[in-house]
Design a protein that fits this description.
CATH superfamily: Penicillin V Acylase, Chain A
Radius of gyration: 20 Å
Number of helices: 13
Distance between the termini: 43 Å
Strand order of the largest sheet: 3-4-5-8-9-10-11-12-13-14
CATH topology: Penicillin V Acylase, Chain A
Shape: globular
Number of domains: 1
């Protein structure tokens, strides 16, 4: 397959109680490997692509995923079975606890939780933690397979360093989740800092404005690409949160992550994360150990914001650990936020499409990569055209940039109608080949 990885990047204890993998001292007494503070893998060779595009193309040049960070592969605790097989293969069992319910919708496990943070944590801990196998043995077997049997003891110390920066409500929720489930709290701190502490994502997004939409409303498509490790596909789920005093939202997640990788809220605001390395940012930002972990910052976006503009205001007002692109869309249209600890640049549509893979392209932040991105090249062909796109057309675009079995999820959001179309891979073939399960999210928020 084009651009396959050269093997997993392995976090190795460096003898000082932390991990190392190609670190460079940043002069501040910690190590900075590029974007992530503690994990950096080699770049995989990328097929030749287009020349560096200017900001006016609104198209960031991506790359094939680098050596994938082993531990996130586990924390995904597997990506996904196809919708038709999800109920049979899933490790989850239906149940209720308090105001929480775990059920299957179109074959996909859907967890609905509501209330104050401690109540939500207890609901997740009971319905997920007590109704599915303990994930720690899965982690241990995975670490053994990659010759890192003793790695977690070092890694959890790093995750603890970010734990004080968790939003208070999220911290209370995780503490209650740990108590109800019996999970090691360090496992949960790591799950929700995994983006900040690892790398290897290779995602693609396409945001279609109303003027080029067959539905006359925005359409937002996204592939989530990650390592398809054997034995890990059973814990995929949609977590539907109805937090007291905040907006309800749905997170397409990898249990037991409670931050947001991909999601939509009750106002139709939808967002997904695309990995960007710190060293790819022109502003030369360094990792901010006082920042809010990115998956929790993006959860705050869905909990507290109605529009793209409100999300921008929120993110500018908080400390941010590292770099990322946030593809974001509301019922009126979308944008890409290019984010570093120092700055946020907002990319608007070009020809009514906004594309995102895995590089910054704005003038203040973008650095031209040495090699192009075949995924971007394919998407640019559509951006430069004038045809209108519907949901099926967006899925076809996502299929064209699939990375085979590494494309674990493919989804399309319709913010105006609060609709999610979700395809889930089985770890053997691309999620883009699956039949989509359709969710009227508004009904799940009732």
């Amino acid at each position: 397959m084009r651009g396959m990885n050269r093997g997993p990047t392995i976090l190795r204890p460096n003898g000082a109680g932390v991990t190392s993998c190609g670190f460079r001292p940043n002069g501040a007494g910690v190590y900075s490997p590029g974007r992530k503070p503690w994990a950096q893998g080699p770049h995989a060779p990328a097929p030749k692509g287009p020349a560096w595009e200017s900001q006016n193309t609104a198209a960031p040049l991506g790359r094939k995923p680098r050596g994938l960070v082993v531990l996130f592969a586990w924390v995904c605790v597997g990506a996904f079975a196809t919708p038709a097989a999800a109920q049979t293969d899933s490790v989850f069992k239906p149940g209720t606890h308090g105001k929480g319910e775990l059920k299957f919708v179109s074959g996909v496990p859907v967890l609905v939780v509501s209330g104050k943070p401690a109540a939500i944590g207890e609901q997740i801990g009971t319905l997920v933690g007590k109704n599915s196998p303990d994930p720690r043995p899965v982690l241990d077997e995975f670490l053994k397979a990659v010759k890192l049997e003793n790695g977690f003891d070092a890694i959890k110390l790093i995750a603890r360093k970010l734990q004080p920066n968790f939003p208070t409500d999220h911290k209370l929720e995780i503490e209650a989740l740990a108590k109800a489930s019996g999970y090691d709290p360090d496992l949960l701190w790591f799950c929700n800092t995994v983006y900040d502490l690892s790398s290897g994502m290779g995602c693609s997004t396409v945001l279609v404005e109303s003027a080029r939409s067959k539905t006359k409303a925005p359409i937002f498509g996204r592939n989530f690409d990650w390592v398809p490790s054997k034995g890990l596909p059973q814990q995929a789920a949609i977590f539907v949160f109805k937090p007291a005093g905040k907006y309800a939202f749905a997170s397409i997640t990898l249990s037991p992550i409670t931050g947001v990788i991909s999601g939509m809220n009750e106002h139709g605001l939808s967002c997904t994360i695309n990995e960007i390395l710190l060293k790819q940012a022109k502003d030369k930002s360094k990792f901010d150990w006082d920042g809010v972990p990115m998956l929790l910052a993006f959860r705050r976006v869905l909990e507290e914001c109605k529009t793209v503009a409100e999300a921008e205001t929120l993110l500018r007002g908080i400390k941010r650990t590292t770099s990322a692109s946030l593809s974001i869309c509301d019922a009126k249209g979308g944008a890409v936020f290019e984010i570093t600890p120092k700055a946020i640049e907002v990319r608007k549509p070009t020809n009514d499409l906004t594309l995102c893979t895995n590089h910054f392209v704005s003038d203040p932040l973008g650095i031209a990569p040495k090699k192009g991105c075949w995924r971007l090249e394919k998407l640019l062909e559509t951006q430069k055209g004038d045809g209108k796109l519907g949901v099926d057309d967006v899925f076809a675009e996502l299929d064209a940039v699939s990375q085979g079995k590494e494309t674990l999820q493919s989804m399309v959001f319709e913010p105006a109608t609060r609709t999610l179309y979700l395809k889930i891979g089985d770890g053997k073939t691309s999620a883009t080949k699956a039949k989509p399960a359709v969710f009227d999210l508004a009904k799940l928020w009732e």
